[in-house]
Amino acid sequence: MRTTHRSDCVINQTLEVLGDQWTLLVIRDIVFVNRRHFRELLTKSLEGIASNILADRLRKLVEQGIITKSDDPTHKQKAIYSLTEKGIALVPLLLEMAAWGDEYLPTAELCGLARTLKEGGPEMRAEFMNELRKTHLPASG
Predict the structure, then answer these.
(1) What percent of the chain has pLDDT above 70?
(2) Where in the numbering of this chain does the HTH hxlR-type domain appear (predicted)?
């Protein structure tokens, strides 16, 4: 994991963690469609992520403390990825990005859960984040 940064700017440092082409899409799939296994993230990605890129991004997200990797109790050869509180805290950022894209990108469409959460307001977003905590954080379940 990188320990030095190009600058002390908080936006720069955030981009160093989240700013590549794939990281937020992996997080999106974990958050909004509950894809928690490598194979699901690989084969069901709308954007067609390569397996080596996915493996690298998952490793980096674990190193950054955004997700955890643990053995899946239902299958000995599978790992399951779970959000940490740090990962759940990205939900408002993802929703703001989605809302911005919905307003300013003419070919983009806000749909499904993202639209529901936008229309549901802060209370619904907070409830959704609490549900993620129950699903992903062992002490919250």
Answers:
(1) 95
(2) 9-109
Q: Dig out the tokens for 124 from the structure.
A: 């619904």
Q: Helix axis angle, 112-136 relative to 23-33, nearest 10°?
A: 80
- 86-119 burial, b at 16+ Cβ within 10 Å, e below that, comes to ebbebbeebbeebeeeeeeeeeeebeeebeebbe
Which of 130, 95, 101 is CA-nearest to residue 116?
Answer: 95
pLDDT digits (tens, 9 = 90+) for 38-51: 999 999 988 999 99
Compute the distance between CA of residue 49 and CA of residue 28 in angstroms, rounded to an integer.
13
- Between CA 39 and CA 43 the distance in angstroms is 6
